[in-house]
Amino acid sequence: MSEVAAPPPLESDARARSLPTLSDRVLAATPLLGIYVVFCGVYVVEAWKRVTPWLFTDELELTQLSRSIAKTGHAARRGQAHSPDSLYTYLIAPLWRLGTVAESYAAIKYFDVFVMAAVLFPTYFLARMIVGRPAALFAAAGAAAIPSIAYSSYIVEEPLAYPYAALCFFLIAKAFVEGRSHGRRSYAWWAAAGLFTLAAGAVKGELVIMLIVFALTSLFAVWSSDRARLRRRSWSIGDWLGAVTLTFGAIFLISAIASHHSQQWYGITTYYKHRILNMGDWAAGSLALGLGVVPVAAGLAALFRAPGETRTRELRMFRCVALSGIIAFGMYTGMKAAYLSTVFATRVEERNLIYIAPLLFIGAALVLDRRRVNLVAFIAASAYALYLVCYAVYHPTQTPYEMGVRLYSDALGLSIAQQANLVFYWTPVDVRWAMLVVVVIGTLVVLSPRLLKHRPGIVTALTVALGIAVVGWNLTGEISAAAGTDHIGKQFGVSLERPFSWVDSVAHGKPTIYFGQGVSDQTTEWMLEFWNKSISSVTSVDGTIGGPGPAGSPNLDANGTLYWTPDPADIGTQYDYAVEALPCVDFAGKQVATHDYLAGAQTKVWSLVALSHPNRFVAECTGISPDGWSGPPQTDYYRFASGKGGWLRVDISRRDWAGPTPPTPVHVQIGTLSLASRQPALGTIKRQINLTVASGQTHAPIWVHAPADRFAVRVLVDDLIVPCQVEPTQSSDCRQLGAEISYRFFRHRPIAKRRKGA
């Protein structure tokens, strides 16, 4: 038979090797377990230093769901039934039963650390299918050291989803490798891959695309098979054109079906296609920067066959899985970022792309282990990686590398640049040059087997040094992200002030409602809700409190009684305690505790009240921001308590405004209290007081004599101030401000103290 007619070489089976003994397995596992223990030790310390959650509303929502599961067995947010969202909520639910919130929170953080760091194991086992132990350890260590591992101290889905995705990649690859044997072992791997892939969406919604990864892997496996390769050898140009046409036709058909069933898909793919690519590159650039560029360049190049490479089934299936994962997660990330830019904000969404990091590290391990790479593919991949870190993510928004913030929660890969700015005062230009140097050095080391053919010792030393440097770079980025997390947590802790669980120490789990007013930043309320399990409902008098979960205001009758149904005769839920946002929320009951917090850069006070039954307001006011300023259209005060009269003191000033604005007329209207749509309102105006307030001036207090009947007071400020327009170089406050207004009720008018010498 002639050489031309000889069949092409088939792929070899790398599994044909002797089975290791038990001692071999223990010895082989020791380095992997050692790395796991060391990394867990580092991450546990980071978790211990994180004093409080702050990534709201993510952490609070998962807390609400898991606490409800722990208490009732069913997921809910603020008492309203809700989907559990993730298996993660079920996993951490038992930990909420350990004791205090602080004890449960600590247990959850440490649990997250051990789970997320476990990405080491599936990454190692997948890598061992194609590389030796040292290279597999490098891949596993890299995957467990990426900056996004800092999520391990958060109450978010990533600590479970990240290692779970790596496990799915391993199971899919293993199923396709074992699929040729058709034995019991093969069926077990197929069953495991199918089961874990189907369940992926329950771990995190994004992981539903594991089904797409499985489908694409099947297509690529068929396309790259020996039979398909032989078949394509006989294809004509027309056959190739037909295959390309059918491929694009299938893509258009799938997109058309998706557009028909999803308005979001239709809008993004029709009007914002460019954003999918641009914002996908932003996320990829952040990931590349965090990984140290080399794993991205080498990992992408590993998808292409290197010269002199032995064709094995394991390597082919890894490439099928890796290519599928990169395509699926890359498209998802780009489309999600594009969609968010239309409905929420323009964000760098690296958080959705981190799942391909193990695949990239394994690809890089393959290149470094075999010391050969497809030159064209590697140069192209290096050029793309250079574009990502030196151009795409250089100006994704107005701030290159997001160096204007302490930590960018959706892109922890940027943390090393942010830390360099904080510690070494690096500018974005400095980071850009540093990344250029990293790309050049990494490229030269990867190509060193070609450049130093007769110096194998030097090549080995350079390869080992590069591997250590890459893992060190990632761990530095992770520690930087954890330091940023710790810093923000401490800032948030100062705003709430200790003890965080002051409500629980009094209420002891009895139903408690939080009632706010004029909330411009809900952060302190979210923290209060997290640290106090007794708070079962949250609302406000003016609709300024939002989710997660219901936050609707109750209805009120003329006596100030709260009812949560359309019928005043059926008042609905009753609470034992309420947290009042003084001074605008005043419940009938006994004050049992107070707590200071920061709002609008000022110290404010919460009051915990043991409520009367039925729950009833004594008074409330609206239209005042946390720093005391009123805004459009007015501010109102309503007094519900009947019986003895009293005096209402109204303070009006512009003492904290010294800008060049003329005095403004102010009108104080006193009238009856009426109801409109089951809410209090100013009825008939009985009296009006007119005055003016100038910049830097505090008007003399206005005393309103309150009869025994209920009453209402309204303060109208004619000329509003917009500080950022009046003094654009000195103020960034673009609110419309009226005056600084406060109300205080007295049963008896205080007697003014005489000044000495009067």
Textual characterization of the structure:
- The chain is α+β, with helices and mostly antiparallel strands and 758 residues long.
- It has three domains: 27-56 and 118-231 and 256-491, no CATH class; 506-620, no CATH class; 628-758, Sandwich (Immunoglobulin-like).
- Helix content is 48%, strand content 15%.
- The chain has 24 helices and 18 strands.
- A six-stranded antiparallel β-sheet has the order 8-11-12-17-14-15, with no helix packed on it.
- Helix 4 packs parallel to helix 7, helix 7 packs parallel to helix 9 (210-223) and helix 13 packs across helix 15 (313-343).
- The longest helix has 41 residues, at 456-496.
- It is elongated.
- It starts with 21 loop residues before the first helix and ends in a 12-residue tail after the last strand.
Secondary-structure topology with pairs:
Layout: H1 22-49, H2 58-72, E1 76-77, E2 80-81, H3 87-92, H4 101-117, H5 120-127, H6 133-143, H7 158-178, H8 184-203, H9 210-223, H10 226-232, H11 237-261, H12 263-271, H13 273-291, H14 294-301, H15 313-343, H16 357-370, H17 375-392, H18 415-424, H19 428-446, H20 448-451, H21 456-496, H22 504-507, E3 512-516, H23 523-531, E4 535-540, E5 555-556, E6 562-563, E7 577-581, E8 585-587, E9 589-599, E10 602-611, E11 617-622, E12 635-639, E13 646-653, E14 664-676, E15 679-693, E16 702-706, E17 711-717, H24 723-726, E18 740-746
Parallel strand pairs: 3-4, 3-7
Antiparallel strand pairs: 1-2, 5-6, 7-10, 8-11, 9-10, 11-12, 12-17, 13-16, 13-18, 14-15, 14-17
Helix pairs in contact: 1-4, 1-6, 4-7, 5-6, 5-7, 5-16, 6-16, 7-8, 7-9, 7-15, 9-15, 11-12, 12-13, 13-15, 13-17, 14-16, 14-17, 17-19, 18-21
